[in-house]
Amino acid sequence: MIFLTVGSELPFTRLVKAVDQWCGINKQQKVFAQIGPSGSDGYRPINFEWEEFVSPREYHQKYNQAELIIAHAGMGSIITALEMSKPIFIMARLAALHEARNDHQVATANRFSERKGVIVADDECAIVEILDQWDNARETVEIDKVEPYAEERLIRTIREFILSS
Amino acid sequence: MVDSKIKKLLNIIFHNSKYLSGEITLLAIASAGGHWVELRRLRPAWKGCKVTYVSTSANRKEELIKEAKKNQMDIPQYYTVIEASRWEKAKLLRQFVQIFIIILRTRPQVIISTGAAPGFFALKIGKLLGAQTIWVDSIANARELSLSGEKVASSADLWLTQWEHLVEKDIKKMQLRYEGKII
Predict the structure, then answer these.
(1) CA-CA distance, A15 to A4, in Å (whole number)?
(2) Using one digit for the tens of pLDDT, what is the confidence trace for A123-135?
(3) Nearest by CB to A153, which of B36, B140, B179?
């Protein structure tokens, strides 16, 4: 199963639509999606099951079950994938298209593109391209192992501050 | 001078629980989603403290219970506050009141947040009541600090960014620091 998730704040039709169309052609692929609130275009996928929002428990269940995550370049989505050792395809929301308040996701996507198991798609065409390659790539994909905690220096700084208060 | 004495006195009255139990009371607060995921990755920093978590989704409690049971630790307190974006003024006001009540009730000595609005409110209220406060701006803000991170500066005793180059942009000299990243 592939889990598509775009956060709960704003819709992200460009990504949802691209995956929907890809599923229309690749009918053997099973996708479940969390698509957020309805946008002004009211786009609703027809080729896979979806919910606007899922609970944290269901979210974790879907991550667990999924062999691949497709997501916006949100920190929650990326960190969860890395912590659970799941490959993730990410696409950044763009402020110019009213997908986000600013372009912080572009910077996030760039930064995480260096990590094994994180693949960045620049736009909706690129997402379809890497999805087309997924069937061949899934056996060989490598994923960075990530600890569930922040960098030691950060934790130590905060701990020292707490203990001295 | 007088002001600092009053503050100190308030602090002692407000935090008398510390002197009774010896435990440090800490409030860890963030909106649900990415901010929460970031906050949770810092949890070794408050190991052994009496922790209260606050977020904007009721369902976050489950993972706390699960972890506490696994490690045979006390289940931390958990409160849910209403979710509010920066344009939803009425909801923001409600969120502010909810956080105010939680802080009065739990009397934290230390408050830590990764954002956004709930953390901003908590640090502002906490500072007023004499708590020590920590702001860790989200790693998502690589180009500039978040709006709440920028505005919380005067109320953050430890004010951190996760991007070293942003320290130079601290033009007001509010002692923005870089001490590493959550991932």
Answers:
(1) 9
(2) 999 999 999 999 8
(3) B179
Among candidates B26, B85, B179 on the partner chain, residue whose Cβ is nearest the Cβ of A162? B26
Rounded distance between C-alpha atoms, residue B33 and residue B35, angstroms: 6
Buried b (16+ CB within 10 A) or exposed e, A16-43: bebbbebbeeeeebebbbbbbeeeeeeb
Chain B closest-CA separation from residue A160 CA (Å): 8
In this prediction the pTM is 0.90
As for the ipTM of the complex, it is 0.91
Q: What is the 3 state secondary structure string of B9-35?
A: HHHHHHCHHHHHHCCCEEEEEECCCHH
Spatial separation of the C-alpha atoms in residues B152 and B29, rounded to whole Å = 14
Dist CA A29 CA A27 (whole Å): 5
Mean pLDDT within B43-54: 96
Are A110 and A87 contacting, i.e. CB atoms less than 8 angstroms apart?
Answer: no
pLDDT grade, residue B52 (50/70/90)?
very high
The span from the CA of B127 to the CA of B115, in Å, is 16
